[in-house]
Amino acid sequence: MTLRSYLFVPGDRPERFAKALASAAHQVVIDLEDAVAPDAKVHAREQLARWLRSDLPAAQRPRVMVRVNAYGTPWHADDVAMLRDAALCSVMVPKSESAEQLADIASRVAADVALVALVETVAGLVQMRAIAKARAVARLAFGSFDYCVDAGVEGMGRELDAVRSAFVVESRYAGLPAPLDGVTLAIDDAARIVEDVAFGRGFGFGGKLCIHPKQVDAVNRGFAPSDEERAWAQRVLERLAQNPQGAFAVDGKLVDKPIIERARRIAAEVG
């Protein structure tokens, strides 16, 4: 299944973990970083370790990842050490700024653990090509708000066009899935989340970070092919089967190789 929605849950609120798993989020990201105050981080890690060991249902384990504290912070090494024995499939790495940092993290977790590199600084953007190809990195994610603070960018719209395009280009160049777009802070504005999802998808993003369960359904729907797109892809592939060597048109438009590849990608999308 294509993973589209990544729902953050504060790491010091274990009573919310099950609620997040009950949502339709494709991945639940238990956050030990920004969502937890410095003086609560050690306790949050201890609580999370107990929950992962005793309370997380085995069937749900593939849906859970942890955002550890950033490389070089006082809590990072212990976060990673705790996860080494947790049998999780993936880890989110904030403030990803170099391939060497990510390779070091990969060397300290289980061999089959995938890293989602959260790029949210200018340094990370400059190094994104190397980051995307670093060992164990499975996807890039855009930490848009932190990036704007670091870069001194005041707007969240067209001001970030070049940055968004870079995420898509580098993901494609590295052979990674389409990247994850940053969060939308509006929780109760349904129209805003739909608009932001459409905007991100238009740039080539394949999913989005979420801060509330209310955002999940809009993200899942918005990044999935619509019924109209699936029907169009089916028409294209049916005509291709009838004309495997010749040119043909669908809906009055000529179909060439790039159009066929787009139809195949849409048809292959699950969910």
Topology:
Blueprint: E1 5-10, H1 17-22, E2 27-31, H2 41-54, E3 64-67, H3 76-84, E4 90-93, H4 99-107, E5 114-119, H5 122-126, H6 128-132, E6 137-142, H7 144-151, H8 161-174, E7 180-181, H9 190-203, E8 207-210, H10 216-223, H11 227-242, E9 248-250, E10 253-255, H12 257-268
Helix pairs in contact: 9-10, 11-12
Give your account of this protein's structure:
The chain is an alpha/beta fold and 271 residues long. The protein folds into 2 domains: 5-223, Phosphoenolpyruvate-binding domains (TIM Barrel, Alpha-Beta Barrel); 227-268, no CATH class. 44% of the residues lie in helices and 16% in strands. The chain is built from 12 helices and 10 strands. It has helices at 17-22, 41-54, 76-84, 99-107, 122-126, 128-132, 144-151, 161-174, 190-203, 216-223, 227-242, 257-268; strands at residues 5-10, 27-31, 64-67, 90-93, 114-119, 137-142, 180-181, 207-210, 248-250, 253-255.
Q: How much strand?
A: 15-25%
What's the CATH C level of the largest domain?
A: Alpha Beta
Strand order of the largest sheet: 6-5-4-3-2-1-8-7
Number of domains: 2
The helix tally amounts to 12
User: Could you say what the CATH topology of the largest domain is called?
Assistant: TIM Barrel
The SSE order reads: EHEHEHEHEHHEHHEHEHHEEH
Helix content: 40-55%
User: SS-based structural class?
Assistant: alpha/beta
